[in-house]
Structures are given as C-alpha cells and as structure tokens.
Amino acid sequence: MxxxxxxxxxxxxAAGRRHxxxxxxxxxxxxxxxxxxxxxxxxxxxHLRHVATVDGMLVDLLKAAQESDEELWxxxxxxxxxxxxRRVALMDGVRELTLDTLVETMRGSREAAFEVVLGLPAAALxxxxxxxxxxxxxxxxxxxxxxxxHDSEHEAAIRRAIExxxxxxxxxxxxxxxxxxx
Length: 182
Description:
Strand order of the largest sheet: 1-2-3
CATH topology: Four Helix Bundle (Hemerythrin (Met), subunit A)
Number of domains: 1
CATH class: Mainly Alpha
CATH architecture: Up-down Bundle
Low-confidence stretches: none
C-alpha cells in the first residue's frame, strides 16, 4: 500500500521537528536536565520523558480510527484528569532510564508512529478526534498536523528550562551530595 501524499508530508514535518529536538538533546549538558523554567510544572528531563512516550497514545488512537466506528478520544478518555494520569504513568514508566536509553525509546516510539501514520486510509483522516477538555472535536488530519509540530513545543520548553539558572537550594543540595553529605 502506498502512503497518501498528505501523510508523507505530515511524517516529513514530524521527522524534521524530531531532528531539531535531537540536536538540542545532544547539546544539553548532563547536569542541566533537572533544570525547570519558572511557571513550568516539568523540568527539562520531564519534557523529554513525555516526548519519548506520548507517541504510544497516538498509535493507539490511529489504530482505533481504523478498527472501530466508536468515538475517538485522544488518550482513549474523555476525562481530563484521567488523560493527565495516563501521560504521567507513561512518563513514570521511563523515569529510571538513562538519557541514552530514553533517546532510543523516543526514536523507537516515533518510528512506530510513522509506520501507523503512513498506513492510514484516506477515510480515517475525516474521523473526528476529541480531546478531553476541548470544547469540540476536529478531523484526524488536523490532529496529525498538530502532532507533527508537537516536538517544537517541548523543544522550546527544554530551551527555557536549561536557560534557567538553578536556585540556591538546588546548588546547596548538589554541593552536599558531591561532598557525600546527604
């Protein structure tokens, strides 16, 4: 089966964004990953954990779009709190991974997503997708266009986080750990 040109374009855009994110990841010093921008609930590493795992929910959504006529919900839920719990559970599942393993996980999940996206039939693109908390749904093709740009949001968040100097408490704790005092 040949992929629909529109979907090839979506995948190419997503791949371009992912390439830019991976370039940033390679340049971040290891001791910067715990930094967190003011007003952000996540530190830089949390953003990376999210990016490494969220494509799994997309794959599930796309498979449901092809296999069922039921209403499509991102994360398979209409409840905002439950959707957030699922995101957090996915992130917690990779919490203990090394940075290199996390990046490999991110690459693998993106490749799996690309495979499913490229196999979508044209009719699936017209399916309505709902997102918990959003006032209305939108076509799957729109959801995919937003997904293709998703990495840029987290790339920007990681940039803000690593530009944020650590607070005095963090510096004190790091110094104590380095001296062997806990």
